[in-house]
Design brief:
α2 packs antiparallel against α3 and α7 packs antiparallel against α8. The protein is mainly α and 281 residues long.
């Protein structure tokens, strides 16, 4: 769908004399590459752990998200540079029929963004959510192009006929700023995942409450959670009765692991470190 939209917008932009639509076509082309990156990243992230990667391949998902974000920033820079060139170069007024193309594009990309975003939220994928924002940025650039072309057509008909031709180029420049903002917004969570930043309190507190609720657990001394691909890896220090036999402590650790994974199904592994309980002073 992205490839088809890119082709339609490129032809319409060249024939209809509107650089905003050509810039939009470039954005759709980036969407194709971005979706392929996300697909590849998820495929690699889904591979099981092996001898060379004992912790799995989940970081590939965050790398794909970061790559999509960087692509957005690159597209924004390229569109901005070309828009400035077009503003300084006299050209013809865009063709009115290009507005119909843009309306169709906004509707399609809006639906795509909503669908992909819902899937990304459901599976907890940073990369898929980044791809959804990529689709949304395409809809934004199309909407900006619609406004710019409309202003150019209105000005050429009602305000003297000249000097308004570059309105769609200004729209492309504004759209590039929106795309850059989205790129930065997407890059941050991807970098957080790559740097093993702790997830939100909703995940962490659910894990803590599940561990504390296991009979025999007297306290949780430490809890570390990091996102790896579509799941989480947990390290928890559990304090129990100091005189608990080793075999019973092992069984208690297993119950803690089961409780955590039952409370948060996205947890892929739980490392439980047993410690003797020390009452607070």
């Amino acid at each position: 769908m992205n490839a088809g939209l890119a082709a339609v917008k490129l032809v319409a932009g060249l024939v209809g004399n509107t650089y905003a639509l050509v810039a939009d076509a470039v954005e759709s082309g980036a969407d194709v590459a971005g979706s392929l990156l996300v697909w590849g990243g998820l495929s690699v992230a889904a591979r099981p752990a092996d001898e060379d990667h004992p912790y799995g391949h989940g970081k590939a998902e965050a790398l794909a998200a970061a790559a999509v974000a960087l692509m957005l920033l690159g597209a924004a820079l390229g569109i901005a540079v070309q828009a400035v060139r077009e503003i300084r170069t006299p050209h013809q007024v865009p063709a009115p029929w290009t507005l119909g193309v843009l309306v169709g594009v906004v509707l399609v990309k809006g639906l795509l963004s909503r669908r992909v975003g819902a899937i990304g939220a459901a599976i907890g994928s940073t990369a898929v959510r980044a791809d959804a924002w990529h689709h949304l940025s395409d809809a934004v650039t199309s909407a900006a192009a619609f406004i710019g072309i409309s202003v150019a057509l209105w000005g050429s008909r009602h305000r003297g006929g000249t000097g308004w031709e570059s309105a769609d180029d200004w729209a492309a420049l504004v759209a590039s700023a929106v795309i850059a903002f989205n790129g930065v917004s997407l890059l941050r969570p991807a970098l957080h995942d790559l740097m093993d930043r702790i997830p939100g309190s909703d995940i962490v507190m659910s894990i803590r409450h599940a561990a504390e609720g296991v009979p025999g657990v007297l306290a949780i001394e430490k809890l570390a959670v990091r996102k790896v691909g579509l799941g989480y890896r947990v390290t928890v220090h559990v304090q129990a009765e100091p005189k608990t036999p080793l075999d019973e402590a092992h069984l208690l650790g297993g119950r803690v692991k089961g409780a955590v994974q039952a409370a948060v199904p996205q947890v892929q592994s739980v490392l439980v470190h047993m410690e003797p309980y020390e009452a607070p002073p």
